[in-house]
Amino acid sequence: MKVLVINGHPTPKESAAGKAILNAFLKQRPDAIVRTLAERKADSPAGFDVEAEQAALRDADIIVWHFPFYWYSVPGLMKTWIDSVFLRGFAHGSNGTALRGKKLVVSLTTGAPEAAYAEGMPMNWPLEAFMPPLRQTASLCGMEMLDPVATYGTTAMVLGGDEGREALAQAAQKHAERLAAVIASIEKAEA
Ligand SMILES: Cc1cc2nc3c(=O)[nH]c(=O)nc-3n(C[C@H](O)[C@H](O)[C@H](O)COP(=O)(O)O)c2cc1C
Question: In what residue span(s) does the Flavodoxin-like fold domain sit (predicted)?
């Protein structure tokens, strides 16, 4: 199946976790197409070449949204992309069937550790509690959103010197393997 990775990092050159995950993932799935939104910004009111973005989505079977978790959601750049590209008549509405039947896999990194994502802890809720807007976006467009593949605690790794770098490399490799496994399970189910 055709895998399209939408890289929603607003400053991909400064990314540590997201970049390491993408590099590891592409070793497993060299056939995947990566669209880095920060490199696709257009000088237009929509902010993107909407037709080109829609064509890329149309062509994919499995769409991966890969992003750093920003304020409990996708980064603003990615939200602008969704707002501009997921239009009525394309993604929703009676004639908007272009995304129907596609699978959406959310692949994200958080700064906070997993233990912080729980009642009574700094983030108060588990990660899944922040997913309904994304799940409903997928649902309205007729896409099935799978459970997110998440790597938590990247801030400590990034600030953690040599040990942190090693932990990040290992976490990125594990994330890439989990992401590839989710995609392989979709492919198996659809075969
Ligand atoms: C504007 C902004 C908002 C952030 N919001 C969150 C958040 O809501 N929850 C969280 O756990 N981390 C948050 N972080 C931390 C990022 O998720 C973390 O730095 C990122 O996942 C690391 O990936 P990268 O190395 O690819 O940039 C935020 C960071 C920034 C810059």
Answer: 1-178
